[in-house]
Each structure stands twice: as C-alpha cells, then as structure tokens.
Write a structure and sequence with these properties.
The chain has about 425 residues and is an all-alpha fold. Helix content is about 80%, strand content about 0%.
Length: about 425
C-alpha cells in the first residue's frame, strides 16, 4: 500500500481505515445520535409537559425513569443480548429503531400521564438492542486499535444528541410547543432505515454459526469478576450521565433561573464538550495502543482519570457566581469526556466475538438501572429540600466509586478464556 508515492510503514498499514469501516461507523454514529436524541427529549420539554399535565416533581421523576424500566429489564433478562447474538444483528438494530421512533412520534399526541408512561416503556424496549448490536458489530468488523475511536464517535453521538436536542428543543418548544417537536423527531428517525438497509454489514451472526455449546452462556459471563466490575463501573458513570441529561435543564431553569433559551445554550454546550473530548481521547487511546501500550494501561488510565475528575461537578451547586458555576460545569464535562470512549472498548475486548452481545446487554441493562435511580433520587431530593445540592453530591460520590470499580476491580483487559459450562470462576 502506498501513500504519496512512498511505501507505507507497517504501523501506517495497521492504522489505516477501510471505506467499509467508515461507512458502517457513520451509520452507527447516526443511529446513536437518533437514539439519545429520542431518549432525552422528554427532559428538555419536562417543565412544559409538567405544566400542561399538572404533574408533581415526583410524577415527573417517574416519567423520566419510565424509559429505563423497560430498557434495563430487556437487557438484564438477556433478551436484547440474545437477539443480537443469535439473529442477524443488523436487522435487530433496524427493528429496534423503527419501534423507538414510532414511540417518540406517538408521544407528541399523548394527553395523559399514563399514555406518555406507556410510550416511554416502548421507547426503552426498542432502544434496548442498540448497544448490544453496536458491540456485536464493532467486535466483528473493527480491530482492537480502531475500537477506541469507533466507540468514541458512537459515544460522541450520544452527547451530540442531547446537546442538539437541548439547544433546538429549547428554542423550538419556546415557539411551537413540545408536541410538534416529538412528532417531527419520531418521523425523522425512521429515515435512517433507508441507508442502513443499503449499506449494513451482510452475513450471519458469528454466534449463530457456532454450536450452542461453544457460545458462552449468561452463567459463564457472570462467573467473571470483570463482568461484575464493568457493570458496577458503568452503573456509576451512567448515574452521573443520567443525572445530567434528565435534570440539568431543570436545574438551570429552577435553581439558576435561566430562561429557556439560555438554558438551551449552556446545557447543550456542556453535552457538546463531552462529545468533543470523547472523540479526541478515543483517538489518543487508539494511537497509544498502536504504539505498543497495553489495552489495560490505556483503558484504565482514561477511565480512572476521567471519572475521578468528574467530581468537580459538586462545586457547581455550591458557588453563587454564575460564570464560575458554568466554568465548573464545563470542566466536569471535559473530565467525563476523557472517560467515555473507554467503557465499551473494555467490554468488547474482555468479551470477544462470541460473548460481546450478551455481555454488553447484561452490563448495560444493569448499568441503566441508574437511569431509574438518578431521576427518581434527584426528584425526591429536590421535592424534599427545595435545592439541588445533595443531588450533585450523590452524583460526584458515585462517579468516584465508578473509577474504583474500573481501575481496581477489573483485571487485565484481554479476551477472557471462558471455561464453558464450568462451575469455577475463570478469574
């Protein structure tokens, strides 16, 4: 292979990306963007929906948590991971997007608490297959030294979704109301299915081609100490993240008294920062591995540093000066962005091709119980105290605990050698 008339070095050959990889990754990134935009749009319209439906803060907390009840359940019960491992993962992902887009569209016409609650449950079912499918596709089609950047771009899309949703949602809802916003988002999401059908990876699932006895079971995965520690680590980071995406807009409006347009700008910029730093650190982590560092050193360095520094979120609720508070919020966003490209890269390496879907599904299902806990705990704290300080404190402490689970609890980051159907732990 030649570049600019000279023979490429082995390092350059290993670093090169194929057009097929870029095409698949672009579609996964777009899917992830739509996924998080639909997941977080309720928090942007929360104050308007609360006013229209005359909901208490506690009821609003339940609406913000409803998605995670079904989302986490379908992953914890291994339904999402099983679908990704046993069937054509590309069709599974497409069906999931169709379901969650329909639920988003329907929310725009819902007029009761119960109707929105039910549609949020459907949204969670549809989105439950997304991350198991992403892991399955990445571990089958991308080498180790491309996965940090690939996961970072996908993760950046999960931050760009809330960022753009907060910005546009805040501005558009101010002018048109919240209902048209949901209807347009749901219809627009379905457009993704057209290029996905054209360019999705073809072929049968790796697990589907294997004898079932060769495919790690849920019990085989649960025997691994690292499986428990990655799940706990992601739970902690998810609590921090879902605290931000479900209550940051409300915090800026209720406690900082920002008008809707100002909330939209500062909230979206915080999410945007996480995405930019995530992509940068994903690229840096891949280059570090490509130049000889072990995945263990690289992934743990980024994960531990990012989550530990994210605790700077606490002073945001303590300082009175608006500029200082927003600077601290942005600094916490940068820190969280350092962590985010590592989480699923760690899991994909540990699980390998045959267990990536199941392991990711189980881990992500447990971790997304934080999506139930964070909105409810925050809603209860705000309702009880009238302030957000204790909610910020809980988020900071849990983020620090997540750093401990990933750095100290997870062992060497290399593919696990499963002792299939054995009763003795392999770690």
């Amino acid at each position: 292979m030649c570049y600019g008339g000279s023979v490429a070095t082995p390092l350059a050959v290993r670093a090169a990306w194929s057009a097929r990889e870029w095409r698949i990754l672009a579609l996964l990134v777009t899917c992830s963007f739509v996924c998080l935009l639909d997941r977080t749009n309720l928090s942007v319209g929360a104050t308007d929906i609360q006013r229209d439906l005359r909901l208490t803060n506690y009821q609003l907390g339940w609406l913000l948590s409803a998605f995670f009840l079904s989302y986490a359940s379908f992953q914890l019960l291994s339904i999402a991971g099983w679908l990704a491992d046993r069937f054509n993962v590309c069709w599974v992902l497409g069906a999931g997007l169709l379901l969650w887009s329909a639920a988003t569209l329907g929310t725009g016409g819902a007029r009761t608490f119960a109707a929105i609650f039910g549609l949020r449950l459907l949204l969670g079912i549809g989105e439950s297959v997304a991350y198991p499918a992403y892991s399955r596709i990445l571990v089958n089609h991308f080498p180790e030294h491309h996965r940090g950047f690939a996961n970072a771009l996908i993760d950046a899309a999960t931050k760009a979704g809330p960022a753009l949703g907060t910005l546009l949602g805040g501005l558009l809802m101010l002018r048109y109301g919240w209902r048209p916003f949901f209807i347009v988002l749901g219809a627009a999401g379905m457009i993704w299915l057209l290029p996905w059908y054209r360019w999705m990876p073809r072929g049968e699932s790796v697990a589907a081609r294997k004898d079932p006895a060769e495919v790690p079971s849920v019990a085989d995965i649960l025997r691994q100490r690292s499986a428990w520690c990655t799940a706990l680590g992601q739970f902690c980071s998810n609590y921090f993240w879902y605290f931000l995406i479900t209550w940051l807009p409300g915090y800026l409006e209720k406690e900082r008294h920002f008008p809707k347009d100002k909330m939209a700008f500062f909230g979206s910029f915080a999410f945007f920062l996480i995405g930019v730093v995530s992509v940068t650190c994903g690229w840096l982590s891949d280059r570090w591995i490509l130049h000889g560092a072990t995945p263990t050193l690289v992934r743990k360095t980024f994960a531990g540093t990012g989550l530990a520094l994210s605790t700077v979120i606490l002073p945001v609720a303590m300082v009175h000066d608006e500029r200082t508070a927003m600077a601290l919020l942005f600094l916490a966003s940068v820190a969280f962005g350092i962590y985010t490209p590592t989480m699923f890269a760690i899991t994909q390496t540990l699980a390998g091709p045959l267990a990536a879907g199941k392991w990711t599904g189980l881990q992500n299902g447990f971790a997304n119980l934080a999506g139930v806990a964070a909105p409810l705990v925050t809603g209860w704290v705000v309702e009880s105290t009238g302030r957000f300080y204790l909610a910020f404190l809980v988020a900071a402490v849990i983020a620090l605990a997540g750093a401990g689970f990933l750095v100290l609890g997870v062992g060497r980051i290399e593919q696990v050698k499963f002792r299939l159907h054995a009763s003795v732990p392999t770690e």
